[in-house]
Amino acid sequence: MFPIAKGGTAAIPGGFGTGKTMNQHQLAKWCDADIIVYVGCGERGNEMSQVLNEFSELIDPKSNRPMTDRTVLIANTSNMPVAAREASIYTGLTLAEYYRDMGYHVAIMADSTSRWAEALREISGRLEEMPAEEGFPAYLPSRLSEFYERAGRVETLCGSEGSVTIIGAVSPQGSDFSEPVTQNTKRFTRCFWALDKALAYARHYPAINWMNSYSEYFTDLDAWYRENLGDDFIKYRNKITALLHEESNLMEIVKLIGADVLPDDQKLVIETAKAIRVGFLQQNAFHKDDTFVPLEKQKLMMKAILHLYNKSRKIIAAAIPISNITRLGLFERLAKMKYDIPNDKPEMFDQLIADIDSSLAKLTV
Hints:
Elements: E1 9-13, H1 20-30, E2 35-43, H2 45-57, E3 71-77, H3 82-101, E4 105-111, H4 113-126, H5 140-148, E5 152-155, E6 161-170, H6 180-188, E7 191-192, H7 197-201, E8 214-215, H8 218-229, H9 231-257, H10 264-281, H11 295-317, H12 322-326, H13 330-335, H14 337-340, H15 348-364
Parallel strand pairs: 1-6, 1-7, 2-3, 2-4, 4-6
Antiparallel strand pairs: 5-6, 7-8
Helix pairs in contact: 3-4, 5-6, 8-9, 9-10, 9-11, 10-11, 11-15
């Protein structure tokens, strides 16, 4: 939904408990990179030890060896001096660029850039520099830009290709995305995965809010999607996004006057969006199939959801109430398809779509 390209930059802002660190752990485990540089900048000590324990137990799907074999961990716990906190970010970036120049694709996880900015603020205060917004130094935007602009995809002097992809976590106090670090980070990153406290408290993980998040890599990556997955993938993704936005607008009406007053075609949008949220966007990191889903399966999941939506629209247009459709349990089946259909058996989606057609056909007879 919001992709990032190799050599790109992304920000993961979110309040306490929204899952910034766990999102970065998952990206480190499954992203298409040769080497992972994980920078724990001002992190809690238990989170650093968790990375060490988890990565030593996890087997890298590429090499069948422990993840620690291709991971560099920069440990800067929250009780260390602020000067060390500032240095940890630059240490991680320099290591990443060293491996990039050797022809490797490197992903750097910076957790968290807000604590780095706080270290800059503390050092700036001790140097008696003129403070800017919220006490941060006036050069905060330039420091952030210098950090994110070191990402990129390059051709090395020996003719091979390497890249550095930067994914930085931001910890705005009180989940306030209008604070200086988040706002300045948005200026310099092309991918923004906004974590929502309400989604996290509802146990919807990853808690990425589809209304506030965006990616500017669509134009760069659409050619790759067409070549590897066909035009359908882009068409399905755009339709899924449109349905989620339409549901968000309808929920404003539902909160005021209830769902019963909505016409059946709008009730169908709400039912379909619920299936998208639970069956497609929500992900279980501890399930063997759902922890990493291939793009081909994602395409087929979107196809199944939109197939039911389009078929149901035609039935509702024939004056058949939506209650007859929901009674069939098809939306509940879509919500569980990620568990019911293994990653290595995409042909089972043909049977799912055939079952949807046969169930709906009984309504129109």
